[in-house]
């Protein structure tokens, strides 16, 4: 009975939500929308996404979220729930802007592949060919007794290593190299930083690697290095390359490293969740965990000079859906002015093909994306070959070429405790597929 009442409440609200969606879509030139039934999805089953999201909002596990499902190029579900700012009593909006953090990485990978297609380099080229500070890398050795020392790496870092995270670089939270990164003032993109990616990359290149390039997978600042590569090859700052070569062609009107003042009122507040403290607004001062320090004010405070290719962007669900639709479209997307192509179909295939092989027997990872179901059975609903990633402040996306489906979840929460809403939204989108009913 409780579930039925909730469903009825949601249906009554659906007309109002639809009007919000249409208004936001018109303002931001979003993807076209359709009735769920027209693209093989059950509207009643899609409502379960809203119910699950509202349940966690009511339980004060999350302030609010935007969820979006696209199938066959049509928006079938697009809903904003809860608050974008609880303290200011500002409701979540479809065009709310979110810190997407590591969801920046696929966009930087796209930029790299665009330059690759123009013939500027090969993926097996050493990065030192373009960024000479990375010449002759060294690997840190920690003996059982005595002081750590370095030895020459067995080979140079390649561009492909940086794209697939096999470079030997890491992040400041790594217990081995993290303290060295902190002492060298290495930026991770989640804190105001008085420097550029050129400054950051040169500091990073001066430190030893965690392992020999190609030996294993380690999530890293390698994509920030790729952001610097884009600048060197193109002769443009990374934000300018993104704007002119990616965001404007894709009609991504609300995606920035540092949003303009006129749009900051749409940036969602960030929150923390600790079991003993509950849900609270992110503090005014940064949070430190070991050698890693992060904040939530970096998009609008500080020097605003660091264009972190690995984690610095702010975006909306609608904007990111256009990026995803370009990928699912084999590198192109149809807009109001016709078809826009950023990549060839073959480059998209390469990016979404597992690049790790025997390096990681259980994990699939391409050039900028995690890939599910290619080495191990699917853990939840989905499709083998679906590619995806997420962001530090609790955002996530998935792209499924087989089902022609995109699922986007955006909130602003870290730490998130044991909350699994992002994964539930993904599963609930898939259980709504009813093609067989036709």
Question: How are the secondary structure elements laid out?
Answer:
Elements: H1 2-28, H2 43-58, E1 64-71, E2 74-85, E3 90-91, E4 98-99, H3 105-117, E5 138-141, E6 149-152, H4 159-164, H5 178-183, H6 197-205, H7 222-234, H8 238-247, E7 271-274, E8 278-281, E9 287-289, E10 292-294, E11 314-315, H9 317-328, E12 332-335, E13 338-341, H10 345-351, E14 364-365, E15 370-371, E16 387-391, E17 395-400, E18 405-410, H11 421-430
Antiparallel strand pairs: 1-2, 1-18, 2-3, 4-11, 5-6, 7-8, 9-10, 12-13, 14-15, 15-16, 16-17, 17-18
Give your account of this protein's structure.
By secondary structure, the protein is an alpha+beta fold. The protein has two domains: 267 residues, Beta-lactamase; 138 residues, Beta-lactamase, CATH 3.40.710. It is built from eleven helices and 18 strands. It is globular and about 60 Å long. It starts with a helix and ends in an 8-residue tail after the last helix.
Short description:
This protein is an alpha+beta fold and 438 residues long. Helix content is 29%, strand content 18%. The chain has helices at 2-28, 43-58, 105-117, 159-164, 178-183, 197-205, 222-234, 238-247, 317-328, 345-351, 421-430; strands at 64-71, 74-85, 90-91, 98-99, 138-141, 149-152, 271-274, 278-281, 287-289, 292-294, 314-315, 332-335, 338-341, 364-365, 370-371, 387-391, 395-400, 405-410.
Termini, distance in Å?
Answer: 29 Å
Q: Please tally the helical runs, counting DSSP H or I stretches of 4 or more residues.
A: 11
Number of separate domains: 2
- CATH architecture title of the largest domain: 3-Layer(aba) Sandwich
- Report the average pLDDT across residues: 92
How is the CATH topology of the largest domain named?
Beta-lactamase
SSE order in H/E notation? Answer: HHEEEEHEEHHHHHEEEEEHEEHEEEEEH
Structural class: alpha+beta
How many E-type strands? 18
Range of strand content: 15-25%
Radius of gyration over C-alpha positions, nearest whole angstrom? 22 Å
Residue share in helices? 25-40%
Biggest sheet: strands, sense, closure? 8 strands, antiparallel
Strand order of the largest sheet: 3-2-1-18-17-16-15-14
Say which CATH homologous superfamily of the largest domain is assigned.
Answer: DD-peptidase/beta-lactamase superfamily
Q: Indicate the CATH class of the largest domain.
A: Alpha Beta
Q: Which regions contain 5 or more consecutive residues with pLDDT less than 50?
A: 1-29
General shape: globular
């Amino acid at each position: 009975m409780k579930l039925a009442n909730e469903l009825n409440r949601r249906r009554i609200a659906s007309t109002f939500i639809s009007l919000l969606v249409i208004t936001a879509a018109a303002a931001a030139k979003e993807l076209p929308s359709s009735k769920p039934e027209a693209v093989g999805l059950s509207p009643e089953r899609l409502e379960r996404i809203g119910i699950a999201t509202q349940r966690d909002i009511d339980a004060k596990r999350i302030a609010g979220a935007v969820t979006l499902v696209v199938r066959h190029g049509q928006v079938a579900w697009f809903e904003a729930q809860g608050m974008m700012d609880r303290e200011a009593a500002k409701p979540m909006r479809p065009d709310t802007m979110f810190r997407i953090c590591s969801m920046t990485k696929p966009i930087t990978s796209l930029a790299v592949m665009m330059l690759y297609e123009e013939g500027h380099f090969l993926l097996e080229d050493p990065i030192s060919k373009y960024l000479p500070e990375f010449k002759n890398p060294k690997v840190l050795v920690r003996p059982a007794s005595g002081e750590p020392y370095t030895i020459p790496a067995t080979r140079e870092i390649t561009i492909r290593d940086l794209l697939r995270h096999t470079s030997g670089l890491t992040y400041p939270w790594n217990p081995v190299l993290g303290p060295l990164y902190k002492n060298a003032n290495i930026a991770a993109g989640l804190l105001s930083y008085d420097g550029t990616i050129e400054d950051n990359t040169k500091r990073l290149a001066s430190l030893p690697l965690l392992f020999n390039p190609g030996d294993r997978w380690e999530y890293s600042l390698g994509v920030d290095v790729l952001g610097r590569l884009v600048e060197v090859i193109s002769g443009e700052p990374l934000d300018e390359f993104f704007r002119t070569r990616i965001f404007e062609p894709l009609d991504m009107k609300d995606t920035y490293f540092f949003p303009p003042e006129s749009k900051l009122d749409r940036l969602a507040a960030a929150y923390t969740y600790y079991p003993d403290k509950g849900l609270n607004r992110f503090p005014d001062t940064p949070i430190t965990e070991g050698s890693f320090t992060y904040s939530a004010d970096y998009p609008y405070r500080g020097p605003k000079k660091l264009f972190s290719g690995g984690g610095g962007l702010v975006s909306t669900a609608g904007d990111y859906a256009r990026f995803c639709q370009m990928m699912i479209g084999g590198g192109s997307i149809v807009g109001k002015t016709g078809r826009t192509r950023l990549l060839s179909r073959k480059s998209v295939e390469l990016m979404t093909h597992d690049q790790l092989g025997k390096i990681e027997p259980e994990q699939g990872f391409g050039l900028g994306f995690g890939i599910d179901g290619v080495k191990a059975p699917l853990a939840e609903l989905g499709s083998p070959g679906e590619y995806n990633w997420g962001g530090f402040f609790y955002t996530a996306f998935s792209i499924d070429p087989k089902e022609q489906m995109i699922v986007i979840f955006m909130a602003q929460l870290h730490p998130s405790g044991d909350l699994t809403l992002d994964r539930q939204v993904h599963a609930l989108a898939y259980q709504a597929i009813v093609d067989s009913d036709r």
